[in-house]
TrEMBL record:
This is dTDP-4-amino-4,6-dideoxygalactose transaminase. Coiled coil: none annotated. It comes from Pseudosporangium ferrugineum. Gene3D superfamilies: Aspartate Aminotransferase, domain 1 (3.90.1150.10), Type I PLP-dependent aspartate aminotransferase-like (Major domain) (3.40.640.10). The active site is at residue 179.
Length: 374
């Protein structure tokens, strides 16, 4: 089965991990700091490494002070965790519809969803295409809300010449194996705000305060540490950070190949009947995690099944978040976001990863053409 996504691991990555295993530090050591510094150079802002992308979202919301009584405006066209981690902190999630072409959070819909209780607005860079952050910034500022970017798909992307990581108050990344780079499991939070950065670091380290200037009982002894607010152990170990730093060296090559593959898909699939290709706005330089086509005329399920039967691992990204039973049980109903639901009904992610060969891609295109033209 040709997968829709797959990691690229080299001897250099293996050596980096082996070196970490042979060192004095397996976790909370120097490679964590090195990886965070390496990541900051790409993101454009200081970073806090965490154990996965879901933990990054949880940490970002906690750093922003999201809690009971607050509302978080976000998109339904995302993996459930973008909403779920806000719900776990006691906030009410308000789903706003997406733009018809990019499937990103629509700034006008977000503005209409804002109330006096809005604490945060969380956009998702769907498939690696950054959301419209200039417009979303105006909405967030007018609501006195924190702007959060779920950039799980988008490390390496840029918006109006600015790197993802600098576009929101807090940005989260995921380093799952199918993403643009991997640490096995892993994630990070980026922010240029020193206080948000401090809160994120404390939250991911079980809430422990070790800074004597912040302690309530600083004279207890050299061993002393305090917990002022609840946190969780979301620390990314040195072993995985070593792999991350090694992967970051190849990020430009990863981006170049993904862009080349997307351009080939655009060319090879142009004019195929019953198919709509993804858009790229002129002010965006995306590093695509997904190549999401739209299968028209109600044929998405048929095409999905036939492609899988042909050994091609297409995927659907995603079921609208409020369709999940956990949100249905809270009273959310289908029909809330018609653009998102229409997009979901047609979306199909084609294989896209660094090691995908031209021959593999030709096979995907031929199979898809054959199905749609039959």
């Amino acid at each position: 089965m040709l997968p829709y996504g797959r990691q690229n691991v080299t001897d250099a990555d293996v050596e980096a991990v082996t070196s970490a295993l042979r060192s004095d530090w397996l976790t909370t050591g120097p490679r964590v700091v090195s990886f965070e510094d390496d990541l900051a150079r790409v993101a454009g802002a200081p970073c806090v490494a965490v154990i996965n992308g879901t933990a990054a979202l949880h940490t970002a919301y906690a750093a922003a002070g999201v809690g009971p009584g607050d509302e978080v405006v976000t998109t339904p066209m995302t993996f459930y965790a973008t909403a779920g981690t806000a719900s776990m902190l006691g906030a009410t999630v308000v789903f706003a519809d997406v733009e018809e072409d990019t499937a990103n959070l629509d700034p006008y819909a977000a503005e209409a969803a804002v109330t006096g209780r809005t604490r945060a607005i969380a956009a998702v860079d769907y498939a690696g295409h950054p959301a419209e952050y200039d417009a979303l910034r105006k909405v967030a500022d007018s609501a006195d809300a924190v702007l959060i970017a779920d950039a799980a798909h988008a490390i390496g992307s840029a918006y109006r010449g600015r790197p993802v990581g600098t576009l929101a108050d807090l940005t989260t990344f995921s380093f799952f194996p199918t993403k643009n780079l991997t640490t096995g499991e892993g994630g990070a939070v980026a922010t240029a705000d020193p206080e948000l950065l401090r809160r994120a670091r404390v939250f991911r380290t079980v809430g422990l305060v070790r800074d004597r200037d912040r302690m309530r009982h600083p004279d207890e002894g050299g061993w002393h540490q305090e917990v002022h607010e609840f946190g969780l152990n979301y620390r990314l170990p040195d072993v995985l950070c070593a792999m991350g730093s090694s992967q970051l060296v190849r990020l430009p090559a990863f981006k170049a190949r993904r862009q080349e593959l997307c351009a080939r898909y655009d060319e090879l699939l142009a004019g195929v009947p019953g198919l709509r290709l993804p858009v790229t706005r002129g002010h965006v330089d995306p590093m695509r995690h997904l190549y999401p086509v739209r299968v028209l005329d109600g044929r998405r399920r048929e095409v999905f099944d036939r492609m899988r039967a042909a050994g091609i691992g297409v995927q659907v990204n995603y079921v609208p978040a409020y369709w999940h039973p956990v949100y249905k049980d809270l009273g959310y109903r289908r029909g809330m976001c018609p653009n998102a639901e229409a997009f979901y009904a047609e979306e199909l992610s084609l294989p896209l990863f660094y090691d995908l060969t031209d021959a593999d891609q030709d096979r995907v295109v031929e199979a898809l053409r054959t199905i749609l033209e039959s």
